[in-house]
Amino acid sequence: MYLIGLTGGIASGKSTVARRLYEHGAVHIDADQLARRVVEPGTPGLAAIVERFGAGVLRPDGTLDRGKLGELIFNDDEARAQLNAIVHPAVRELSARLFAKAEEADPDAVVVYDVPLLVEASVDHPFDLIVVTSAPRRTQLKRLVEDRGLDPLQAEARVDAQVANTERLAVADVVIDTDGTLGHTMSQADALWQRIAEERAARRA
């Protein structure tokens, strides 16, 4: 198995690159989806969140009210750290199980782990390659406002709440510049796939 850690700031083109690699045949695992799965009703994760933050973070149907939880932790670093201490280990365990399942199904699988908080959460899976999508702050803000409908202040808060891009670039093996056209981003993803194929062929030789 060949494991890629794909990360980048909000609205930096991660989904576009992940989708392109998936089209080439990669297995795509999305950390955000896993973070939702580990706090579904009946999970130890949700029970721990309720124990720490109270039943007020639940909707009437027993699911997690992310909006209310977000309000509790937004300006409270200690509360955010406590939430992360519940969610991150559970996501790590689930992701490791999914990697093993992918490898069992196909020992030659290329797995793309799309993980926005790779740096912030100190994700330390044994990656063969770390890929960072990169776009200037102005481009991120424009995309959040025009494509996702956020108002400019919301967009700035979202971007500024994340780790500085320099910290992501410091861990990158490959940087994909997504500030240009969609075609330019796709061509870089295609070149990355070709590089991986050549690297794996050389390993087998």
TrEMBL record:
Known EC number: 2.7.1.24
Domain of life: Bacteria
Catalytic activity: 3'-dephospho-CoA + ATP = ADP + CoA + H(+)
MF term (GO), any: kinase activity
InterPro entries reported in the protein's UniProt record: Depp_CoAkinase (IPR001977), P-loop_NTPase (IPR027417)
Subcellular location: Cytoplasm
Cytoplasm as UniProt keyword: yes
Keyword terms: ATP-binding, Coenzyme A biosynthesis, Cytoplasm, Kinase, Nucleotide-binding, Transferase
Main location (coarse class): cytoplasm
Residues that bind ATP: 11-16
Enzyme class: transferase
Stated family: Belongs to the CoaE family.
Function: Catalyzes the phosphorylation of the 3'-hydroxyl group of dephosphocoenzyme A to form coenzyme A.
Protein name: Dephospho-CoA kinase
Lineage: Bacteria, Bacillati, Actinomycetota, Actinomycetes, Micrococcales
Annotated gene: coaE
